Amino acid sequence: MHSKQEKLEAFGRLLDIMDQLREKCPWNAEQTFDSIRRLTEEEVYELSDAIMAGDRQATAKEIGDLLYHMVFYARIGQEEGAFDIADSIDKICDKMVFRHPHVFGPEAGKATTAKEIADTWELVKAKEKGGNKRVMSGIPQAMPALLKALAMQEKARGCGFDWEKKEDVWDKVQEEVNEVNEACANADATQIEGEFGDLLFTVINAARLYGVDPEVALNRTSEKFRRRFTYLEEQTLRKGLQFSDLTMAQMDALWDEAKAKGL
Fold it and tell me: Total domain count for the chain?
């Protein structure tokens, strides 16, 4: 591992490279906050993929790619006279010091648990903001729906608004299932959509309570579906057939073969 000095030198090298690219590379020179925003979103997903794959070398690379984007934004901000990278770093440092009084403040050294910290996290953040911002206001509207639901539930938990016993959530899940069934029986499209939304939100809540990341769980199930469906497709084509040539029973048999193979 590198020393602190080597890490500082590496970061300084990145800043120097950004300066050179911004001043001498036509493509880099014409980029704006808006033009690289979409690329940054792609980098975040690529980092997430590397982490989920457990590939540490790929994770290191993707962290570098994302860090490059952060430095890029800061350089543009510097050119506008709005802020530079030191401002961004100072802001996150100040925030972390304020939010961790058990490490940096008068409560330093006081015994606490990870759960106690998590359970009061949103209250600490609200105190930091002076009560001028609502708890849910920091969740982006453009955030994917599943992640947004989870973020809202975590923020509510951080304010003490949560189930006393995780087992109690199953009564709520069943209640929502019944309401979906009722809405479907009524054939009211608006009601059906709303009740499915309620059910999905509650299932995400249940996953959270049991320590399951619903995004990871759903991704793994989706990939499993992809593998099994691909097997079904390949076996069908290998026989010179199309899906339209198969009965549902034949498709189910191929699906069971894929499961038996561990796909």
Answer: 2
Residue 171 CA neighbour count, 13 Å, CB half: 5
pTM for the model = 0.61
Q: Is residue 47 within 8 Å of 53, Cβ to Cβ?
A: no
Structural domain of 47: 4-99
- The pLDDT tens digits for 134-171 are 778 778 887 889 989 999 998 888 888 898 899 999 99
Query: 107 in a domain, yes or no?
Result: no
**Which backbone phi and psi does 69 adopt, to 5 degrees?**
-65, -40
At 227 the three-state DSSP class reads helix
Domain end marker among 50, 80, 99? 99
DSSP 105: S
Contact indicator for 246, 174 with CB cutoff of 8 Å: no
Residues, the chain: 263
